[in-house]
Amino acid sequence: MTQFHTDDYIDFLQKVTPDNMDSYMREQGKYNVGDDCPVFDGLFEFCGISAGGSMEGAARLNRQKCDIAVNWAGGLHHAKKCEASGFCYVNDIVLGILELLRFMKRVLYIDIDVHHGDGVEEAFYTTDRVMTVSFHKYGEYFPGTGELRDIGIGQGKHYSVNYPLRDGITDESYRSIFEPVIENVMKYYQPEAVVLQCGGDSLSGDRLGCFNLSMDGHANCVNYVKSFGLPTLVLGGGGYTMRNVARTWAFETGVLVGQEMERTLPYNEYYEYYAPDFELNVRSSNMENSNSREYLEKITAAVIDNLRNTGPVPSVQMQDVPRKPFGGMTDEEEAELDDLDEDENKDVRMTEHRWDKRIENGAEFEPSDDDELARANGATRQSSNKRTFTDFSKGGEEEATGNSDEAINGKSAEANTEDNHDTNDDTIEEIVATEQDKERVEETTEETADKQTIDGDGDVGMTDSAPVEEEAKIKEEEPETQNAPAPAAAAAATGDVEKSADDSASQDNEGRPPKDQEKPTGEESKSEKVEIKDKEEQPADAMEIDGDKEKEADLATSSS
After folding, report:
1. What is the C-alpha to C-alpha distance for residues 160 and 423, in angstroms, rounded to an integer?
2. Domains present along the chain, CATH in parentheses
């Protein structure tokens, strides 16, 4: 159904029921469902039967399984793409024609319903592959369309034929216009298939119709179209006097299959419906014919003149595209075959755009447990330079312990990693953050350079080559918090520490091999520098306090 109608409209028809129709008030107004197209139980099933019958009949004609296909439940010619109209919910005629166009270059649609076939004409108003011919009542009558000058637009110009009629047309008048028009249509258009809508509301005595056709006059149109020998899809349509519609369509079925039927009806459970004559016949009435001979001749001449302007027979390049998978495979087997073909021919079958969509930048997301799943699905992680800060702690420790590798020129022997980062892409916030990080790194580097490690022997900036005995360890003295020592006392204390350190070092050297007694002169100079620096970093406040105390002592001595 969605080959012509919208998905939303079909979904609405499938969901709405008389029980829940109150919750679909907005949709009912949108899709024109409610007044002349009410909601009833089994609405969607009815639409499926009507549309499915027409599409199946067209499919059988395409595959040459029959010459004539009949669906009396079809012919709902008022339904629009997303709108119900005139008791029609789904336009099975358009769906059937679309199916025929898969194999046929040109399709002719003929409508003998008393109402204009506006839905079908609107669907093919701009194409020359379908010619629509409608004989209908025109004027203040539903749907109010189908003027003589409505001949199509664009590529479909002159391929819409409308024959407006007045009330009370008889069998003779109808035959005098129908046969000449259809003959010229066949001559100029040369269709490959015909769709005939046999609306029963053009019969005499119809409750909503205003024509005066008998059953024989109505069936004459069917017989004339059949005489051309083209694949024909015959459909029902309107008709609001059920006993007349049933008689006529039964009789026309016999005409289509070439079976002559008796006029006397056999007895059945519906026998009383055909009273009072109980015959297979619909007679004309004494209704006045408002269609004069001059009027009909004038309209006929105008219609034929438009047909002459159609030009050469339209054609189109046909390519058979079967709906079923090749080789009789199921959808699952075909999908599996497509996946296998795509895996074996990735470079050929996959475009660059599709590959770019499947590549994940390594610096975009944090590592997660979904990596294995992504790799299983074919997504790959693109290698790139991650935006991380350099870890200087390793270099600082190596410099402090003296184990860092140095090249001949004094630079680090480790290869520097090139950063391909483009600074032009950074924002102001990123630049500020980068500057702050650099300042923190510089401060950390300075603090690391100032701090020197003391090994187990008391040496500064040296590493122990052998385990040190516990007796040789130097315990650090806790600084006094109450009174800061005077400069002289601090110097004396420093001398004592140096002396004790030298004594312990000499004791250790006596018990070690001779090669351990040699120490790098560079490291000794570093330790001396550290001691001098510690002396210089004595608190200035402590020196000032000691100076004040000396002044007070001098004043006291002088006063005494």
Report:
1. 67
2. 7-308 (3.40.800.20), 330-382 (no CATH), 389-404+435-475 (no CATH), 486-500+535-560 (no CATH)
